[in-house]
Fold this protein.
Amino acid sequence: MLLYLFYILSAITVGCALLTIFSKNPVYSVLFVIATFFSIAGHFILLNAQFLAIVQVIVYAGAIMVLFLTVLMYLNLNKSVESSKPLLIKIAAMVSGGLLFLVLIASFKSGLSIAPTSVRGDAGLIKNLGNTLFTEYLFPFEATAVLFLSTMAGAITLTRKK
Amino acid sequence: MDITTAVQQVPLNNYIVLSIMLFSIGVMGMLLRRNAIIAFMSIELMLNAVNLLMVAFSAFKGDSSGQVFVFFIMVVAAAEVAIGLAILAMVHRNSGSVDINHLNKLKW
Amino acid sequence: MNILILVSVLGVISLFAGLSESLRQHTRTIIVAGLIAITGLTMFTWNAKQFFPEMLNFDKYAAVFTTVILVISTLIFVLSKDQFNHDEIHKGDYYGIMLFTVAGAIMMVSFSNLTMLFLGIETLSVSLYTLAGSRKDLLKSSEAAFKYFLLGAFATGFLLFGIAFIYGATGTFSVSGISDYVHNTPQLPAIFYGGVILIMIGLLFKVSAAPFHFWAPDVYEGSPNIITSFMATAVKVTAFAAFYRLFSGAFVDVNEKWDNALIIAIALTLLIGNFTALAQTGLKRLLAYSGIANAGYMLLAVLALKNDASNALLYYSISYAAASLGAFAVLISVSDDEKTFEISSLKGMSKSNPLQAVLFTIIMLSMAGIPPMAGFFGKYMVLSAAIKEGYLAISLLAILTSLVGIYYYFKVIAAVYSAPDTEVQTENKANIVVFICAGISLVIGAYPDLILNLF
């Protein structure tokens, strides 16, 4: 049962991801990427990572993509004015993307069957996640403050007009 | 049916293949498109492939540190998007375009 | 740990000092004084109590490289006088962001968990994207920021994908945990090796090694001079220190699996860096390509890490950073951000500014690797480390390409001493930073033990 659900979700994920990179209009791309993120949140639920599934929807689909849409509208980029690349480069890009896929799959073929060592399936529950985050990973959690401060100062400095 | 066996109904290999697929699509989009916003979204796809892979490993190992790492990736992705879109707005203000081909003051 | 907090606090102070007009004039002085104090503290307290040793391990390696990074940053702050005058209101912000970059760098050289490596790289990169675009009025600066951002984020994707596979194989993010796993597992899964190679690709991007170097010349060219000097010295040293720390800490036992990939990257880096530099006419672009070529030599130290090449890496980093910073200090004193500075514009410097010409010559000789300058001993040490490990072919290639390097560095020296085409107007004062850098190149060349005894 779950396996079928996985295949359906995977088909949506891959299909929407492909549509994202092949859409002419950037606004459609944004919408397809949101669909991709939602289906990945579905995968997270299948993996019993409930907290991350919610965060995925709130942060990625909610915050990040809204930011994208805002910039698209603000800069008025919703028309597809994109100089098209030479066909040769397009083919080269497709081939290299495909090759990357094949190489990664082929190199992992022998090692794909690592034995699942699951002792508990509740790693993704908020309680366990919070325990790990605020004990073992407390320092990185604090260190992100520097990153955010720098980002904030940078974004304001760059976008402010003279 | 307890939760551990439920999670393991889908083999781990499927998740690995799916995330490699998603990652390759992201790389392809980055190489294929000249529109900066779409190239940017391709990078987000790559990061999501990483997230999916890490959550899958974490769930199959029963170890929450992988999911904590995903949390950090999301945090950093949000920061990166903020700064990236600020730069994009600045480029647009200076040159009137976000097409990578028009940015040829510097040779690619 | 304390050092990291102090640097971040200094950054916050700088952000606030930028708010008031009267304080803004003194921000740079405060920062330089603060950084000197922090550098002193680093040297004397590295052995103090550690708070999160499983995240940041402030061992001797970390302390030494932190000191190097802090000294370079102090010199860059000294050099940055008048460099942000185009945007007076945001002066404090730029200084603060530069200090946050240093904080990221400290995380990168002292991490003992991949989480901290990732956060360090991101703190450093995100701050640098802003700084690269800090000349908001110049299109080339915005473009440099944009290109740096897009390719930096792309590289981060590869790095993270690699980390995910390593986690899948080992079940841990801790460097010592990974190393234990490698020791105790007879048959490593394929995803482990795949992860190592993907991490390597990500890091090669960050250190601008070929074939992932193509962003570097453009970004160096377009960024403001002071930021380029920061990227070429402090950031480069940091990236190599992190690269070495990760690979010697976690992947040293499987080095026969990744050394071939690294050898190919080194060969390409040496060839592309040196031969493309030959064709350059702009001084900044020449320095960018010479930075790529130097990345090749520093990667030799990473290649030879089985027999502890950290000494060689440290010595090379210091000699390269001193020479490169000196060259950028000269560039800053003779040109501004707006137009490209051609090598031929250096003509007549020996007449108009004889002291600076002599110092610049010392710096260029050190870069070219002429004894008794530091650059020579640096190359000698990384090469002997690589030869000791049996990497003969790549060492030979490194020696041959360094001969090519001598040619283009002498082209610059020749320009300094030739007669000017027109009357050139340069400020008739040698910068203190040029003086210090030339001094370092000479002193550690004469007494290499000063550095080598640190470990």
Remarks:
- Chain A has a mean pLDDT of 84.
- Chain A is about 75% helix and 0% strand.
- Chain A has two domains: 1-105, 122-162.
